[in-house]
Design goal:
Number of helices: 3
CATH class: Mainly Beta
Protein name: WD40 repeat-like protein
Largest sheet: 4 strands, antiparallel
Radius of gyration: 21 Å
Distance between the termini: 36 Å
Structural class: mainly beta
CATH superfamily: YVTN repeat-like/Quinoprotein amine dehydrogenase
Keywords: Repeat, WD repeat
InterPro entries: WD40/YVTN_repeat-like_dom_sf, WD40_PAC1, WD40_repeat_CS, WD40_repeat_dom_sf, WD40_rpt
Number of domains: 1
Strand content: over 45%
CATH architecture: 7 Propeller
């Protein structure tokens, strides 16, 4: 007698359990966090003043008013999901122009004028998906990371002339896709750059501008860190600290200032364990607020830690923020003008999710521990093949697989 294969039945059952749990949570959280509903799953966001630039798994980026929730502009031109965003302000004549830079699964980098929403240029940048972008404004330097495992440098000096960006260097030492970037300028012709890949490898580079025509950027490996077990999802570098999030269910903080390239045993990072993979972080100590709090997005929950004692972080609050994975956390200094004309600035936090919403949280309320309004439900992880509805997004099979990996249920 032929045996019945029950594996598909088990997969379907686990997926139904997950789907039912999320439907219930979606109903309970439908008005929590002043949600803004979007047409796609949010992959990246940048916040400036009261506006947010949002990238999702559609082929456009959009500018949204965080106060009203209205879409102010749509930047259409990519042929695949927009996966990375950066904002760059530059002097042009007598005015300062704000430029939106987008990277996409179509392997291009595009520059847009945020005043007119017109495209300025398009560059065939990589041989695979563009996953991350970083701008050094004072150096007129753009850095991009990709699934092709390459980090590339682009000169922004003449970026407004409408021509494709000029490549001025690259790094090819990673053996896995380069997922995230961060760094800081250290002089007029120098910078430090951190690159993180999907294997969990973090490289710290010294960048030096060479006196050539055209100029080139030389990269020298300063140190390598292997304290994560798998994919780096976000990193923040500043004030001698490197804070990283990973799908290995940890957030780790490393004191870079005490690390020597010749030291065989670098300092042990401070690790914060989470119940599931961590996709995003916001270190308030490295923002203009300079407050000793770290906010993490793990699963659909926002957690806040007091890191005033760096070696002993303390969990002070948990918030059921979304009904699907949180993908990004950003600080929003909310500006309100009263009837008497006075301007009030108030710190808020913006979170995005695969539940297709942007949610807005008053920081003072997130910092106040309170009973959880919705019980966080632990559900089993279904196989990736059950995550996406095949063919529903109009993506290729390769892009569908990448989106399924992004969702990582």
């Amino acid at each position: 007698m032929a045996q019945t294969n029950t594996s598909n039945l088990l997969v379907s059952e686990s997926y139904l359990v997950l789907s039912d749990a999320r439907n219930q949570k979606a109903e309970k959280l439908k008005n929590v966090g002043e949600p803004l509903q979007l047409p796609g799953k949010v992959i990246a966001i940048e916040v400036s003043e009261n506006n947010a630039w949002i990238a999702d798994n559609t082929t456009v980026a959009r500018k949204t008013d965080l106060e009203s929730g209205k879409t102010l502009q749509i930047y259409a031109g990519h042929r695949g999901p927009v996966s990375a965003l950066a904002l760059w302000s530059t002097a042009s004549g007598n005015e300062t122009r704000q430029i939106l830079i987008t990277g996409s699964w179509d392997k291009t980098i595009k520059l847009w004028d945020t005043k007119t929403k017109q495209i300025i240029s398009s560059t065939e940048a990589h041989s695979d998906f563009v996953k991350s972008l970083l701008v050094y404004p004072s150096l007129n330097l753009l850095v991009s990371g990709s699934s092709d495992k390459i980090v590339r440098f682009w000169d922004l000096t003449n970026a407004l002339d409408g021509q494709p960006l000029q490549s001025v260097g690259s790094i090819s030492s990673h053996t896995r896709p380069v997922e995230c970037l961060d760094g800081q300028a250290t002089g007029e012709n120098s910078a430090e750059l951190c690159t993180g890949d999907t294997m969990g490898i973090i490289n710290l580079w010294t960048l030096t501008k060479e006196d050539t025509t055209p100029p080139r950027w030389k990269s020298t490996l300063k140190n390598q860190y292997k304290h994560h077990r798998t994919k780096i999802t976000e990193m923040i570098y500043g004030n001698g600290q490197l804070v990283t999030a990973s799908l290995d269910e940890t957030v780790q903080t490393l004191d870079i200032s005490s690390t020597d390239a010749n030291t065989k045993n670098p300092p042990t990072p401070t690790s914060i364990q989470h119940p599931t993979g961590v996709r995003c972080i916001l270190s308030l100590s490295l923002t203009t607020l300079a407050e000793p709090y770290l906010i993490t997005g793990s699963g659909d929950v926002l957690r806040i830690y007091d890191v005033s004692s760096p070696k002993e972080p303390e969990l002070i609050s948990e918030t059921d923020a979304h009904w699907h994975d949180v993908t990004a956390i950003r600080l929003w200094i909310r500006k309100n003008v009263a009837e008497d004309g006075t301007t009030r600035l108030e710190p808020w936090v913006v979170s995005t999710s695969l539940d297709e919403t942007v949610r807005r949280w008053k920081l003072s309320e997130l910092l106040t521990p309170k009973p959880k309004s919705v019980e966080h439900q632990k559900v089993s992880k279904p196989p990736a093949l059950e995550v996406a509805e095949q063919g529903s997004s109009g993506l290729t099979a390769e892009e569908e697989a990448e989106l399924a990996e992004l969702m990582d249920d």
